[in-house]
Every structure is written in C-alpha cells, then in structure tokens.
Write a structure and sequence with these properties.
With 199 residues, the chain is α+β, with helices and mostly antiparallel strands. It has five helices and eight strands; from the N terminus they run βαβαββαββββαα. The chain has one domain: Maf protein. Strands 1, 2, 3, 4, 5, 6, 7 and 8 form an eight-stranded mixed beta sheet that branches. Helix 4 packs across helix 5.
Length: 199
C-alpha cells in the first residue's frame, strides 16, 4: 500500500480528501502523521502557484506521493477578495465565525444579484521522478445573508448554492464532495494518482 501525504495543517481539508480517495488502495496521512514539520511560505499570486509551492517543498522530505491543495473564496463585489489570502484574511488567528460575520456585515446592503461568489481549489500532485500535475475546480454560488449549517468549515456557512438553496455547510458530506471545488479538482487528480499507484 502506497502512502499519500496531504500538504496541509487544515484538518477539514484532510477529512474531505480522505473521504474522496476512498476506494483507492492508499494510506492518506497528514504532514504531522508523516512526521514532517514544515512551515511553507505560500507566496504565489495564484491558487495553482501556491499548490505547486507546497507540493514541491514537501517532495524534498519524502518519497511518498504528495497532494497539495490551495483553495479559497472569491467574492465578486469585493474585487474577488479574499482570494489567495482566504486563510489569512482579516488575520490568520481570526476565527472563521468572526471572518464570516465581518463579510456578512460588509455585504448587508448588497442585493442578491450582486453577491456572486465562488470557491476555487487548485491541487498539485508531486511524486518522485514525475512532473508536478495540477488541476483546478470551482463551484459558483453567492454570499448569503446569514451563516447557516455546521457540517463544513471555513467560509462554508456563508456560501450558498442556488440549485440547493442552502449553504455548503448545511449539505450532507457526500453531496458537498460531489459538487464542491475540491471534489471537482480531486476527480481530475484521481486519474493521475491511479497511474502513479501502478508504478
């Protein structure tokens, strides 16, 4: 059984990725579980650049397959903020409950047709002796008028999907994984993983 290391400290992301990789004969580990303590500076200007930075930094420390994910929320009427700064937006140590409320307050007078937003996820897969492979997934939605749901993490409670009339934090995990930005990116990445696992 081969090992896949997820290059993140975000437990929510790790849980989602583990769920989505069920069915592959792999052991999915966090950096901590793999014994890698590395503070990677994400100084790219795009989600893809940051995902590659993380994957390639980790490749120096292991022979395992690495999945790195950089994702975030883009809000159209805020000039696509928080974007690549989503995790650090309004301060890295600021809780998402506070961040979400500040965003809701900033948009309180904005009509629904101007509240468009999307989640973007870039994934990079790095393995020994292979070029880094990337994939991008997005999900379109809008910023709601209140936080709703407790199943997701981060900005999920304020991100609503029109088709389901609810937030991504209020969706069953299997539905969210099917339609989410991360799910879409990982679906593309899975084909690469299958090839690497056969080598």
């Amino acid at each position: 059984m081969k090992t896949i290391i997820v290059a993140t400290q975000n437990e929510g992301k790790v849980v989602e990725i583990k769920n989505m990789l069920m069915g592959l004969n792999v052991e999915v580990k966090t950096m901590l579980e793999a014994g890698i303590d590395l503070d990677i500076e994400e100084n790219g200007k795009t989600f893809v650049e940051n995902a590659c930075i993380k994957a390639e930094a980790l490749r120096l420390y292991t022979d395992a397959i690495i999945i790195a994910d950089d994702s975030g929320l883009e809000i159209d009427c805020l000039n696509k903020e928080p974007g690549v700064y989503s995790a650090r937006y309004l301060g890295k140590d600021t809780s998402y409950t506070v961040k979400n409320q500040i965003i809701l307050d900033r948009l309180k007078d904005v009509p629904k047709d101007q509240r468009g937003a999307r989640f973007v996820c870039a994934m990079a897969v790095a393995a020994p002796h292979s070029p880094t492979i990337t994939a991008v997934g997005t999900i379109e939605g809008y910023i709601g008028y209140e936080a709703k749901g407790s199943h997701g993490f981060g900005y999920d409670p304020i991100f609503f999907v029109e088709e389901f009339e609810t937030s991504t934090a209020d969706m069953p995990m299997d539905l969210k994984n099917k339609i989410s930005h991360r799910g879409k990116a990982l679906k593309q990445v899975k084909e690469t993983l299958k090839v690497l696992l056969e080598e």
